[in-house]
Write a structure and sequence with these properties.
This protein is α+β, with helices and mostly antiparallel strands. The protein has one helix at 42-50; strands spanning 2-5, 8-22, 27-39. The longest helix is centred in the C-terminal third of the chain and has 9 residues, at 42-50. The protein is globular. It contains 1 helix and 3 strands; from the N terminus they run βββα.
């Protein structure tokens, strides 16, 4: 799974991914069982270090 947050790439490798799209609100919710996470976002890295 790859995405961009604040113009910075984030890559996650997983083995369990579950997504749900609420067609009314157009919001995607889901869960991800991470194996690895690569991010170039200092904000995300700071949150991960706290946990």
């Amino acid at each position: 799974m790859r995405t961009i947050v604040d113009d910075k790439p984030i890559k996650a490798e997983n083995h369990k991914l579950s997504l749900f799209l609420d067609y009314d609100s157009k919001i995607v919710n889901g869960s991800l069982d991470l194996k690895t996470l690569t991010t170039h976002s200092p904000e995300v890295n700071a949150i991960l270090v706290q946990d």
